[in-house]
## 1
Amino acid sequence: MTDHFLLLRQPRQPWLELDPLKELFLRLSAEVHPDHCHAASEAIKDSANERFAELNAAYGCLRDLKSRLLHLLELELGASPKDIQRIPPGTMDLAMEIGQTCREVDDFMVARAKVSSPMLKVQVFQRGMEWTDKVTALQQKVNAKLDELMAELQTMNRVWESAPALGTPGRAAALSLDRLELIYRALSYIGRWTQQLQERLVQLAI
């Protein structure tokens, strides 16, 4: 398995600062850009193309938080994590609240489409504003959960910095891999919830 952290000269850890990562990627990719090798042999061109593709794949992985965490888990575990579709502990209540709210908004939208009376339209408009406020409040809950996880990931870097070196038998046991997997799963659901709530806000605004 290609180590994208190693390829882009980054420490293997959960949190990375994106601006320095981008600057390094641009510098490294410029050095091997295929345009610089147009007069070279086919072997050199092929090597440059391969290196350029590897750097782009590594950057695409590391700049995306979910992809980075999955890659980190796969590197440390030697395999993909299991049960990533299972709702992580501590988010079940929020998941149920979001699911119920989305279903109720969908029902409201169906009912709203059938209203033709001007008087009823006023009432439906007011009800729509109430649903907008409720969905917005849920969106704020999701954002607060995301901010909490981001802060935790930054503090987890210290665990990786103090862990035994790569290849050392005690490394996996010293890392918070179980917690990292839970965060990865939570981020997957947060992304899904954010999209679902945003879709309802757009529908309510129409």
## 2
Amino acid sequence: MKLLIATGNSNKAGEIIKILPDLNVTYLTLRDFPDVKIPEETGKTLQENAILKAQSACKQSRIASLADDSGLEVDFLNNAPGVYSARYAGENCSYLDNNEKLLRELKNVPLPERGAQFVCVTVVYFPDGKMIMEKGILRGKIVLKPRGINGFGYDPLFQPNGLSKTLAELTAEEKNSISHRFLAVKKIIPALKKAVSLW
């Protein structure tokens, strides 16, 4: 069985492949399918976007496709940026742009009121129209200034509950053992194993 990791974000694709176990599955990325185009994220929820991307990639590649959509939800900001996390500071913005905007929005907000969570919805869409979907949530808080050089996105600003380090201060292995993406992908594995056995 082949499974396409349908994301244009090489960091995300690498994380997902590291989390997935050896299931006698060949994991492929968009580098293997240069003609597959991931559609614009027009959904109003993470779930809608994940389904949209997985379904589109599956129909174009004709193999099972895994896609996810993830976002940062900040309590003080009524769960913003949420589904707009990747483009919080505007279209074609950088990770740094998003981080700087978030810090501006939380200026003068004390640490105890900076609760937040990373949410990931992961979908595997199969050529026969069947679908697997799971959600992972990692609670934490937004620190006062960026810390760490690892990871990507909002990782330098997000400190998981129970840890003294931000995600960007963790090694890739440490992050992949607790992240919202890890939690969502882990939930999918039993159903994926079953699908592989039937394929």
